[in-house]
Amino acid sequence: MENLLPQLAVNLAEPLGKLWTGTTARCWLEIGFGGGEHLAHQAVLHPDVSLIGAEAFQNGVAKLLAHLADNNVANVRVHYGDARELLEALPDNCLERIYLLYPDPWPKERQKKRRFVNAANLKHFHRLLRAQGLFLFASDIPDYVAWTREHVGSHGGFAEQGDATQPYENWTRTRYEAKAIREGRIPAYLTFRKM
């Protein structure tokens, strides 16, 4: 990790275009990538897309870096820290997609204010996404799914589309999803398009 992370780390002070050389302007972001299974999978499938992963936990970053090294992936950059810092630093209209997959549900009533889907972060999502860009949210917690629909609906800048019972195209099951299914919880895959 100490060798690869400095090469792939996002420098918030530099323009986004300086993160990569020789890649297209297409860029996707995954917030809270966990073990990095989904992010690495998408990077391999889409070598023409530049991907940024944000994760606050060292174990998750180390697992992602192992995936990237094993597959010789060059189109991923990592923000190791609070994703909100990254959201504030990125320029307008720079992302085609934002993934938020199985975020911490903060299930207790007094904890819900900590949920990542909130008015402030949705304002950033809308600013960062290009026209017709996608915010993709997956969770196995019905209350968080309802919360997300309510908050995105209140924002007013997104339209939900697609069948929330079906995984996204080119989906790979994460360890969080596997655990949810083992425990009998049913995932929802919400897709919101920027209007």
Give an overview in words.
There is one protein chain. The chain has 195 residues and is an alpha/beta fold. Helix content is 33%, strand content 23%. It is built from seven helices and seven strands. It has helices spanning 5-8, 37-45, 58-70, 83-89, 119-128, 142-155, 175-182; strands at residues 27-31, 50-55, 76-80, 95-101, 129-139, 158-161, 188-194. It has a seven-stranded mixed sheet with strand order 3-2-1-4-5-7-6, with helices on both faces. The termini are far apart. The model has no long low-confidence stretch (mean pLDDT 92).
List keywords for this structure.
alpha/beta, about 200 residues, single chain, 7-stranded mixed beta sheet, 7 strands
